[in-house]
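If you are new to this repository, start here. Below is one unmodified record pulled from the training split, so you can see the exact layout before writing a loader.
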Amino acid sequence: MNEISRELLEQNMSNPAFHTTFGTSETTIRKILNQCFTEKFDNLAQLKQISMRFDKAQKFPIELQHNLNHTIKNSDKFCGIVNTTRKELTCVAKSNYTIVQHKELVNSAIEALSALNISVYGTVENMGSRIYVKAFFKDKVISDDTEKGIHIGIRIGNSFDLSRGVSVSMYCMRLVCANQMVASNIVSRVVKKHVGEIDCVSLIKNAVTLAVNNSEKVSKYVNTAIMDSYEWEIIDKIVPKLFKIEKHKIEIYNRLKDLNKSVITRWDFYNCITQYATHCPLLSINVRENLERISEKVLAKPLKIGEN
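And here is the target side for that same chain:
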């Protein structure tokens, strides 16, 4: 099982033996370390401090060149979105694109959580023009198959590069192993395009209320998955259906084999996927999100051999 921390990547950036073992290079490690900076917070005041360091964006007019007569004129249909902190053009968007600054969104989250009197802790994943805030509710723990249980929370996302709208989804963390769990199959993820006026405070308040009110559903899904078991013969047929890329397939197999069980429960299978998605820093954001979607399918219902 390839458990690689950020610290280990930094220490072995120029280590040829490390690169041979894990199939990396100094360039890929630098890219991994630069693509996402993670900070922890223990309360809303700390989250506010982190938000002060977020990148900012601004709209700029753009000029288009006509292919035939080579004339250049300002476009009234499109605009450039520039990350002014990094002085980078992040995308060309339609002129009605509405920038939601990361700081404004997080301040809306702080206002919503304060109004609901909910104490949180969590992490911020800062990718410059994209952010994720994972906020777990300190007083909301539901049961699983351990004494520690699962913390309920939300994940808030935003971007300046058209990769995602303003998004809020139910998000959980298994305390015994810190595996993180997307729960949009229980409470639907809300995504607002960057168009028109977006009431971020109301959006987040509604998402938090839904997450709290539906938290026991998570427990029901977990208990059902714990009772649902599969022989290895079935697992061997299911894994290739869910994981098309060989290295991901191998990582999941390794985690399943490390359980040293003759029968695998659907909860075991689910946790192997979330463990890989949560704790392997070599994964890109897009790959991790795809693994999260697969894990949601696994938790939602019994596995079928013919299912993709």
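Two things worth knowing about this chain: Residues 102-214 form one domain. The first strand starts at residue 37 and ends at 41.
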